[in-house]
Amino acid sequence: MLARGVHRAVVVWLCLAGPATHGSAADAPAGRPLPIDTAVDASLVIPPAATHHRGREIAQTMHFTGAPWLVRESRQREEDCRLLLEALDVRPGQTICDMGCGNGFYTLELARRVGPTGAVYAVDIQPEMLRMLAEAAGREGLTNIRPVLGTAIDPRLPAGEIDLCLCVDVYHEFSHPDAMLARVRESLAAGGRLALVEFRGEDPAVPIKPLHKMTKAQIRLELEPAGYEVVGEFDRLPWQHLVFLGARPVGK
Does any domain span residue 2? Predict the structure, then answer.
């Protein structure tokens, strides 16, 4: 994704959200920011980031100062976000992960769709992004979201509980793709899916820098050796691929 200038709303959100905390989302008073799970293992050793993965150059993570681009007025028109959400077939009571959630553009709607019996793990490696999300969720009274500070090698998700892990324009920025894919695979429930959304690398008409695009062939090249298999595709989005992947059965 392309970073843009700092928007005044970013500064306001950060000031209101205050320092990150640890606790249950249900503990947050109405109108106040949700608590953020920041309990990262301080002894965790993160290997140096690779520059390339299976022939693809890895893009840099979009800085939190570019967050306004995620909620730009033109996003629905350009990407048809409502159609994407419908294609995900999210159901009440499900446990979802919004990986690389940023300031919560999709997280908030996912939380509404899973309802009070469901849960959304909102994972990002930038606490500033999570603070924006926590403030927005608090304003809307959504208490079924758990903002989680992840690392470059571990999203810190519960094992075997995630029905859908959504990655919107974020996988191509993973600095340690194999480690992250292994952790996501461990987090999936029986029948759980990874939904990979990436700008179409095959289409030069998509006005996004090539570094931030992926082809379907590259998705398979990277995901299949990591223990995934394609279980579905949705090809009606204006600019993006939507590829659903499940954990490949052992021995297959």
Answer: no
